[in-house]
């Protein structure tokens, strides 16, 4: 089965990439409260019960990121 | 004192570091392939700069899951000396051998220039040939060098003297202008709690010869070999 993991910079942590995107969006006339740029990791696995462990041990850094498994 | 320089796919300061240790400092040094599972007859391992595994996932993240990285954990826990330069510093934080993480530079630019560093603690194996408060000069070249730790951890690092270098002005003052990447507290280099693992973003191996205009980096290597 396919599992999608969304990893984003932690709320409140400086995210210069998100800030740059926000500024350009605003320069183009869009109203945006905040932008955070992260990444998507799509895993195809037989046993989805291991995904959480893979994310926590490998894919994300708890100090600076948070994640959601879809 | 015998040195080992780790080589990951994408390391690009490995030969500079090897050259400086062997030909300028004059110590025994060998390369350590990332697939090696043991670190033997080595007193100090250097993780060189570069873009190990193309910086994929996060800078240093994939290198921190290799066989040599696992051997390095063991090596460090037994008290072996470890120095991580630039990408090597990123690998050490991913390994949790050093606190914190290195974020994308605040200005989003890859920064390649000389910086001044103020010595914050000169009583470590890595800095004993320097003076506390002394200002030295070295080059930096990185896109993800913004050192980050939460506030309470930052305070603990300061109390324990784990911060060895801060970015400063030529006169030693710590200012926002002197901070090239948005690091908290202008931090350029930190040690672990037991002071045998050290990571820094500046490149001491590129500052070891008169021909290049500076040799402040040599003081780090000389500190180590007098350990």
Automatic annotation (TrEMBL), chain A:
Its EC number is 6.3.5.3. Transmembrane segments: none annotated. Its main location: cytoplasm. One of its GO terms (biological process) is 'de novo' IMP biosynthetic process. GO terms for cellular component: cytoplasm. It comes from the Bacteria. It is found in: Cytoplasm. It catalyses: N(2)-formyl-N(1)-(5-phospho-beta-D-ribosyl)glycinamide + L-glutamine + ATP + H2O = 2-formamido-N(1)-(5-O-phospho-beta-D-ribosyl)acetamidine + L-glutamate + ADP + phosphate + H(+). InterPro entries: PurS (IPR003850), PurS-like_sf (IPR036604). Coiled coil: none annotated. Gene3D superfamilies: Phosphoribosylformylglycinamidine synthase subunit PurS. SUPFAM superfamilies: PurS-like (SSF82697). Pathway: Purine metabolism; IMP biosynthesis via de novo pathway; 5-amino-1-(5-phospho-D-ribosyl)imidazole from N(2)-formyl-N(1)-(5-phospho-D-ribosyl)glycinamide: step 1/2. GO terms for molecular function: ATP binding; phosphoribosylformylglycinamidine synthase activity. Keywords: ATP-binding, Cytoplasm, Ligase, Nucleotide-binding, Purine biosynthesis. Part of the phosphoribosylformylglycinamidine synthase complex involved in the purines biosynthetic pathway. Catalyzes the ATP-dependent conversion of formylglycinamide ribonucleotide (FGAR) and glutamine to yield formylglycinamidine ribonucleotide (FGAM) and glutamate. The FGAM synthase complex is composed of three subunits. PurQ produces an ammonia molecule by converting glutamine to glutamate. PurL transfers the ammonia molecule to FGAR to form FGAM in an ATP-dependent manner. Belongs to the PurS family. Part of the FGAM synthase complex composed of 1 PurL, 1 PurQ and 2 PurS subunits. This is Phosphoribosylformylglycinamidine synthase subunit PurS.
């Amino acid at each position: 089965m396919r599992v999608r993991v969304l990893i984003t910079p932690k709320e409140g942590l400086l995210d210069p990439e998100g800030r740059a995107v926000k500024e350009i969006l605003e320069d183009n006339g869009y109203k945006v409260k905040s932008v955070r740029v992260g990444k998507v990791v799509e895993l195809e696995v037989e046993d989805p019960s291991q995904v959480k462990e893979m994310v926590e041990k490998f894919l994300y850094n708890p100090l600076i990121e948070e994640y959601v498994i879809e | 004192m015998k040195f080992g320089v780790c080589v990951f796919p994408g390391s690009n300061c490995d030969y500079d570091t090897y050259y400086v240790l062997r030909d300028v400092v004059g110590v025994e040094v060998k390369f350590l392939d990332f697939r090696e599972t043991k670190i033997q007859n080595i007193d100090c391992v250097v993780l060189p700069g570069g873009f190990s595994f193309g910086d994929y996932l996060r800078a240093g993240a994939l290198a921190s899951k290799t066989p040599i990285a696992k051997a390095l954990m063991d090596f460090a826990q037994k008290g072996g000396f470890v120095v991580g330069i630039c990408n090597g510093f990123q690998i050490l934080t991913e390994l949790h051998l050093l606190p914190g993480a290195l974020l994308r530079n605040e200005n989003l630019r890859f920064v390649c220039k000389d910086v001044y560093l103020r010595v914050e603690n000169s009583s470590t194996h890595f800095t004993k040939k320097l003076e506390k408060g002394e200002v030295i000069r070295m080059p930096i070249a990185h896109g993800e060098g913004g050192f980050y730790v939460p506030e309470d951890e930052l305070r603990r690092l300061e109390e324990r003297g784990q911060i060895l270098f801060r970015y400063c002005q030529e006169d030693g003052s710590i200012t926002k202008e002197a901070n090239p990447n948005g690091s908290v507290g202008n931090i350029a280099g930190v040690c672990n709690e037991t002071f045998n693992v050290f990571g820094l973003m500046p490149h001491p191996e590129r500052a070891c010869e008169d021909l290049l205009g500076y040799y402040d980096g040599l003081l780090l290597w000389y500190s180590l070999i007098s350990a």
